[in-house]
Design a protein that fits this description.
- The protein has about 270 residues and is an all-alpha fold.
- The chain has one domain.
- It contains 12 helices and no strands.
Length: about 270
C-alpha cells in the first residue's frame, strides 16, 4: 500500500465532501424543497455520527480498499483491464460506468434480501430528507458495500485514478440527490437525462412500497430507465409525499444508538 497515494485519496475525498456539504447545506437553508418536520440539528448530529462511525469501522476492517487496492491489483496485473492495452481515459470511463451499474445492482439487492434490507432500512427510516440522509448508513451496510467494491476492483484491475474519481463522484451525487434543495422544473427535467436529481431520488424514500421500489440509481439515470425501475413523479406530489418507513415513525429513528440497534429489533415492516 502506498501511504502517499492513500493519504492523497483521503484528502481529496474529504475536501470534496466538505465543500459540497457546505454548498448544499446553504442551498437547503436558502431554497428548501420541503419544510423540515423534525429537528435538523438533532438529525444531523446522529446522521453524521453514524457516518463517522461507519468510516472508522471500514478503515479498520478493510485496510486494502479504494486506491490502495487498485495499486495492489495493478502491480500484480490482476483484473480484466490489465489483460488488454486500454487507453487511460477509456479505462477510467469504463470503470466509472461499470462501478455505477454495480452500485445500482447492489442497491436493488439490499431491497430484495430481507437480511440486507434490515441493514439498509436504517437509511430509509430518516424522518426527513436532506443532505445528511446521503451519509446515513448502518456500519454493517457500509462494510458489505466496501467488500463488493473491493471485489470489483480486484476483478477489473482499474487505474487508481478511476477508483478515486468514482468514489468522489459517488459521494458527491449521494449528497446531491439526497439534498433538500429546490431546482427549477426545467433544470430538473434536463439533469434527469444524465444524473439522478433530488426530486427523482426522493421518490425512492416514499413510505409507499410501490415508490420506494423505484429509482435505485445514485449517479446515472440510465439503469433505472433501461431496467424499468424509473418513476418520474410520486403519486401525491413532491410536497405531500410521506417519507420513511411505516412502523418507524417515532423519534427513536433519529438517535444514533437506535440506528445502530434497529436492524436487530423485531421487524415492523418489510
Amino acid at each position: 500500500m502506498n501511504v502517499l497515494d492513500a493519504t492523497l485519496d483521503s484528502a481529496a475525498r474529504l475536501s470534496v465532501f466538505a465543500l459540497l456539504l457546505t454548498v448544499l447545506a446553504l442551498l437547503e437553508i436558502y431554497s428548501p424543497r420541503r419544510k423540515p418536520q423534525h429537528s435538523k440539528a438533532k438529525r444531523w448530529i446522529n446522521n453524521f455520527g453514524i457516518s463517522a462511525l461507519s468510516s472508522v469501522i471500514v478503515a479498520l476492517a478493510l485496510p486494502l480498499i479504494g486506491v490502495a487496492a487498485a495499486i495492489w491489483a495493478n502491480e500484480r496485473s490482476w483484473g480484466l483491464f490489465n489483460q488488454f492495452e486500454i487507453q487511460p481515459l477509456i479505462s477510467i470511463t469504463l470503470y466509472i460506468v461499470v462501478f455505477d451499474f454495480t452500485i445500482y445492482l447492489q442497491h436493488r439487492l439490499f431491497h430484495k434480501s430481507k437480511l440486507l434490507w434490515t441493514l439498509h432500512r436504517v437509511h430509509h427510516t430518516d424522518l426527513d430528507y436532506d443532505v445528511s440522509t446521503g451519509v446515513r448508513f448502518h456500519p454493517l451496510s457500509i462494510f458489505i458495500s466496501a467488500t463488493i467494491k473491493l471485489l470489483l476492483i480486484l476483478l477489473l484491475g482499474p487505474l487508481a485514478a478511476a477508483v478515486l474519481i468514482s468514489e468522489i463522484v459517488l459521494n458527491a451525487t449521494s449528497m446531491f440527490n439526497h439534498s433538500n434543495i429546490k431546482l427549477p422544473n426545467k433544470l430538473d427535467k434536463f439533469l434527469r437525462y444524465f444524473i439522478v436529481t433530488p426530486d427523482m431520488h426522493r421518490i425512492h424514500h416514499s413510505t409507499q412500497v410501490s415508490e420506494h421500489s423505484q429509482n435505485f440509481g445514485f449517479n446515472f439515470t440510465w439503469w433505472d430507465k433501461l431496467l424499468k425501475t424509473y418513476k418520474e413523479q410520486p403519486a401525491k406530489g413532491q410536497e405531500a409525499i410521506e417519507l420513511g418507513i411505516r412502523g418507524y415513525r417515532e423519534d427513536r429513528c433519529i438517535g444514533i444508538v437506535s440506528l445502530l440497534t434497529q436492524p436487530f429489533s423485531k421487524d415492523q415492516e418489510m
